[in-house]
Amino acid sequence: MNAAPNPDGAPAAGGPATPRWLRASLWRQLLMPLVGLWVASALVATGAAYWFAGRTTNQSFDRLLADDAHALAAQLRWHDGAARFEASRETADLLVFDSLLRSHYTVRTDAGRTLVGNLALPLPLPELAGPFNQPVFFNQAAEGGLMLRAVALHVRPSVADEPVWVVVAESKTKRQQVTNEIALAIFLPAGLAGFVIIPLLYYGIRRGLAPTRHISALVVQHGENDLSPLSVDEVPEELRGLVQHTNALLSRLKASVEEQRRFVADAAHQLQTPMAGIRLLVGDMRRTQRADPSQPMDAEVLAQLDEVAARGARMVRQLLAYARAEEESVIEDQVFDAAAVTGQTVQRWQAAAAAAGKALLAPAEPPGQPGGHALRGSPTLLGEVISNLIDNALRYGGARVTVQLLARGARLHIRVCDDGPTLDAATRERMLLPFWRGQHGQTEGSGLGLSIAQRVIQRMGGRITVDAGPQGRGTCVDLDLPLSQLHT
């Protein structure tokens, strides 16, 4: 498994390190591959051109050598089958004259009789020798380590005539000189072109990335409190999708910020009531103490103060749970058996139900194989959600509370139903709003229980609905969650 990168772009321990110069900026990541591609292409192109030019040069010089050999062969004559060279030595020198380097030649019979020549040149190897009057090219090392390029022409006008070898050779130095001149003519323009092309690539990429800097400037100009969408009028097509996704993110962030502001305002408003009650009771106690310091504390006032303080502490815990529900659901993410969590939660509330004089019916043993009711998420938070639903049902419902567990296809339904008063549709819809409390006359609730449950269930990929109970009596809260695979 590859290590995840750190936020600053550096890899985690054990991961491959990315060179800092490569990840420094986007234009470098674009420029370096383009420059590398251009350099590689230039090397391949110039290398191929150099090879083809050298090949063409060698072929041209070979043709000139063959022409010299044919010129010398044209001076041969045969009398009674014996070969002789008609021209003089000076004429033979002129026939193979080269202004750059001296050419070497020899004309001799198969029997080894030399007719003319300025250097004793060897004949080609037998496996290289071809038919008569066909030039054969080969390389030959001369004295001093000098490499010669030679051509041999085997001449025989008729079967009765004596065969003659005409061999002409020249140093390969001039070929190398011509090849070097061609190389200079190829590589010099290519090198000069690099001084023009690379800066053009550099400035072209920077100019092409200018819209990204413009978008970055727009984001900076927005500031911390400006979450309005970015303008897409002058954005290139390649970046339009990025800006649109950024605008969607800003829109969601704006909605989240507004929700948090409303939440803080509602929380402050809800906390005013217990805080005002505490101050009022404390004020009464202080006035009583000032009037008669020897008088003991009023037990009724202390009980009221304890009740108000407990209600305030409960609301603070609910506020913290609401704020941390999403974070904790991410931290504790596992596959677990929902049937076991539901059964354990119902078992914990049996004593409270008996104390309230109500019946809490546990879900029947679910059919199927173990693990057939597996969910992914936080078992702790799901248990808290079910506990909250049972608590509400015991507080505000009738004498009978039922917890059901039912798998339908790829979904799991956990239903908590009571047989209390029937609620209208508008009331059932408002029950999921933060800080909403019904007209039941009980003030110990905070109105956050169902909101916390909804947040947890949504993080687990499910949804929560509030419906009327069976036959239109009571209320049922349904947790609809996607099933997962239980790993053993």
Task: Characterise this structure.
This protein is of the alpha+beta class and 488 residues long. It has three domains: 16-208, no CATH class; 230-331, Signal transduction histidine kinase, dimerisation/phosphotransfer (DHp) domain (Helix Hairpins, Orthogonal Bundle), CATH 1.10.287; 332-438 and 446-488, Histidine kinase-like ATPase, C-terminal domain (Heat Shock Protein 90, 2-Layer Sandwich). It has helices at residues 20-23, 26-73, 89-95, 173-208, 210-222, 237-291, 299-331, 338-348, 350-355, 379-396, 425-430, 449-459, and strands at 76-79, 82-85, 104-109, 114-117, 136-141, 147-155, 164-171, 334-337, 359-361, 374-377, 400-408, 411-418, 463-468, 475-482. It has a five-stranded antiparallel sheet with strand order 4-3-7-6-5. Strand 5 (136-141) and strand 6 form a beta hairpin. Helix 10 (379-396) runs antiparallel to helix 12. The protein is rod-shaped and about 160 Å long. Residues 1-5 and 440-446 have low confidence and may be disordered.
